[in-house]
Amino acid sequence: MPKTSAPVREENVEIELLERTGSGDRTSFRQIYDRYSGVLFSTAFQVLNDAAEAEDVLQDVFVQIWDKAALYDRTRGKPLTWALTLTRNKAIDRLRSAQRRHRLKDEVEREAALFEHRGTAPGRDSVETVYASEQGTLVRNAVLQLSREQRQAIELAFFSGLTQHEIADRLREPLGTVKARIRRGMIRLKGIITPRL
Questions:
Q1: Between 5-22 and 26-48, two packed helices, what is the crossing angle to 10 degrees?
Q2: Which residues contact 147 (CB under 8 A, 6 or more apart)?
Q3: Structure pTM?
Q4: CATH label of the domain that carries residue 61
Q5: pLDDT band at 30, cuts 50/70/90?
């Protein structure tokens, strides 16, 4: 018997498990989790180098597998390859989001330090420029107080210039969810910023 028969049989088992998961079979979903969770966690950890973040990605990926198993097409690759692609994409998105947050935080800290060094006299800056800069700092500090999901959606909408449809595609979330996050985030921002203006 050829050596490739066992891997082929194993792949067929995984395809059947994924297809049954797509039909709502929780037992098959648990078996997929048992088979894939270790390697998917390792993949996320390699990208993020943070166990807690990798755990969060793993949870998101298995929610996505449960939601999208019915869309799996066996002609486009092995189930494990599909799951690894989902994991890499989620981990990279999370890493980019963290990097944007760090850049935003660094910018806020730089501006705060700049104002401290200037003292009370604005120097060559006009009063309007100083006021606008202070408002920018206020907005950025307020954004940092939002939930991770709200902040991510608002950053993509206002700092990256993406449309709500593009954000939904990027985050692999329903459009309604993205709209709600942005709306709730903007309401919260208004509540934080308005009393301080």
A1: 110
A2: 185
A3: 0.51
A4: 1.10.1740.10
A5: very high
